[in-house]
Write a structure and sequence with these properties.
Radius of gyration: 15 Å
Order of helices and strands: EEEEEH
Strand order of the largest sheet: 1-2-3-4-5
Number of strands: 5
């Protein structure tokens, strides 16, 4: 890369988990971005109003602080309904988490 092209932030995966049942499925991912720990949690429920996607940063007080969100209306219809057929949570919700991680990096490092 040359001097005019910024280096993309280094994102290091630290942990991830996923759960599924007949009413909802979730995907949680924790990453390190620079000196920051960021947790992204995406929940796809049967109902739009009960679905969410948020990114939080771990504060010095060891509490999670809201950093960014993706309105469920922007991704709800593009994801599979819970309980209808087997869902691989990380595959289904991973792209939403990836977008929030990139937004978190832009917020924290710019």
């Amino acid at each position: 890369m040359n001097a005019t092209t910024p280096t993309p932030p280094r994102v290091v995966d630290l942990d991830e988990s996923a759960t599924c049942d007949q009413h909802r499925y979730t995907y949680t991912r924790v990453v390190r971005i620079g000196d920051h720990r960021v947790r992204v949690h995406v929940r796809r429920d049967n109902y739009l109003m009960q679905s969410h996607a948020v990114a939080e940063v771990l504060a010095a007080t060891m509490t999670w602080t809201h950093l960014a969100a993706a309105d469920a209306v922007t991704w709800f219809d593009a994801t599979a309904l819970p309980g209808r057929e087997p869902v691989h949570c990380a595959t289904e919700l991973g792209p939403i988490a990836d977008t929030l991680i990139q937004r978190a990096a832009a917020i924290l490092l710019d």
